[in-house]
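Sample entry (785 residues):
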Amino acid sequence: MRDGHLKEQSGKRSKSKTSNSFSFTSWWADARNQPITELVGFTKTFFAKHSLLNVLTKYCVFDVDRKLLVMRPYQIVAAERILQRIATSTNHRQLGTLAAGGYIWHTTGSGKTLTSFKAAQLARGLPDIDKVLFVVDRKDLDYQTMREYERFEKGAANSNASTSVLQKQLEDPNARIIITTIQKLSRFVAKNKKHPVYDAHVVVIFDECHRSQFGDMHSEITRVFKRYHLFGFTGTPIFAKNSGTSGSSLRRTTEQAFGDKLHTYTIVDAINDKNVLPFRIDYINTLKMQARIKDKQVSAIDTERALLAPERISQVVGYIREHFDQKTKRANTYRHDGKRVAGFNSLFACASIDAAKRYYAEFAAQQQGLPEAQRLKVGLIYSFAANEDDEDGLLGEEEFEAEGLDQSSRDFLDAAIKDYNALFGTSFDTSADKFQNYYKDLSQRLKKRELDLVIVVNMFLTGFDATTLNTLWVDKNLKAHGLIQAYSRTNRILNSVKTYGNIVSFRNLEQETNDALALFGNKDAKGIVLLKPYAEYYAEYEVRVGELLDKFPVGQAIVGEAAQKAFIKLFGSILRLKNILTAFDDFVGHQILSEREFQDYQSVYLNLYAGFRTTSEAEKESINDDVVFEIELIKQVEINVDYILLLVEQYLKKKGTGEDKEIRATIERAINASPSLRNKKDLIVQFVESVNTKGAVDAQWQSFMATKKTEELERIITEENLNGDAAREFVERAFRDGSIPTAGTAITKILPPVSRFSQGNGHAAKKQTVLGKLAVFFERYFGLV
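Predicted structure, serialized as tokens:
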């Protein structure tokens, strides 16, 4: 996670940044998650024979890309505690009791899948254990982490709808570890009242054991299996304070169902370790009649009706549309999944199916008539009654059967899925298999940031991970573990622009939020898990900008390396503060620096960046760790082509009046302040000199850039003796997909034949040369035409 985040964060610097950098390290910690920062203490613990050998031989895994991952200290401690509990309870003849198991409380986003499966793998290796059952929910295995499990144990996971594969695995003595869904295990137990596996010595590990259906399954497991150890993993345990009233009173809490708490790693620990992001919460009062409602004795139904009033629905949708780009940072572009995308995406959590339908219809109504490029891509999903809002604010379990919906709700969902089909060329509906495939496709498009917003009731609010999600719009009651689970959809680490999870609540959940943080963090959790108030950030911003204007006046040269580094550090801190402040509505109109001043400072910053990179590359060294450039944060306030063309139109109108020189200067200033336009400056200047009043500026731009693009590509084809047709097709596909593919056979098809007997590896050298030229060409023209 940290490695991927830093690659995103460093951008082009990743080529020169080495893995020896301190940025790529994390603190070793003790069993209580306290960092061991003192060298002697670290040496004594980490380099102890037992610790080091365990890390090297037991607690490393390869991911799907064959990259070696070392488990974090809290993950290692959790796995060790499970192994210790298996050994001691076996020795004390406690099999089949709570004393033989326990639960691990590791917060959402901390890598429970890796920890729990590694524990299963290690338990499988114990001599007395016959089978290890790793039990997950159907949606987690089928849709979320199938590939994750396959990387650990080839063939252990299966998503077959029948129980026949599970039965074969249970009866196969060589299948020591089995990953199965709770649904299949339940069917197996129901069909097999007696089976030899029930007498085997088994370890059963439940992933996400806070879910109520695991509690329901608990009685079946403990009834049929005789010699078992039961372990559960959860990010939000069920305590007496947040337990429901349904089910057996003997299994309402996680401790009642699984036994002792074996290890804890809370959301406070994870945020302190920078493994997940903190939250920033806006409470938006869109219901002006709320005060009147509070003064009256009204039922919950009457309150809900008021909350669903058409005027309020319209207000909420209007607010989301007005603030969507601001909250999801749509002005910023970054690379994700091999493509360049703009900003982040979001979920909208509603209180009921009725509410979800109303909001979807209102988005459609407000966006009707807008050009397609200006419309938000909105999805909708809900299932039957379990998705309705729980009066106590705790999230119910997901269902995958739309057949239970009333006809009106099902017809509405079918119509919404038709909209989705039209948008993406798919063919889903609410029939059983197609609805499950719709869920799968929707989740993948969310992860790839192909959707802007998905309206849900309970779906996707637990267990769903998408790093591109940064905002949760909330119009439902949430509390305790339901609130933390829902909020945690937004706080996965992605890049330096995504510094927090954004929660925009249209209901007053402040007390519920504070209570949940106290329950799942500690008494000081609020100050760590939630961002500071706007006033504190703005006060710091004012001080930093004042220091900038005082020490580095606009237009004054910055002389000397020490002064340059001081400027880089100061302006970088301003960029980071501005990145946070832009999501606050109060920041609009209070930026202090004018647009022109900010561009001038940004130009200086980029010039220094180019200078430091040139120096470091010439010396074949990485940029020093004390010089950190926030290039990704600059890109979020990027000058785009539309802005340049607007200036060109103004330039044409004022040409010959004397004011045109000032506009030309503004154009050059804007280009110099833009990381993506600086390498296109000669093209833009040539266009400005050639543009005339005889045709639309946009049409002239498209024609000019298309011509230049063709000329440059043809020159590369000629210089490198490439296969012309194949090269043109290769480039066209790259512009469509958003990147130059470096792997596969596509690149080899455009290369000229090279003798395999030539001195050195001529083919490889030629390939690298061509890829280098095409990469420069791509960066130069991507986004211009």
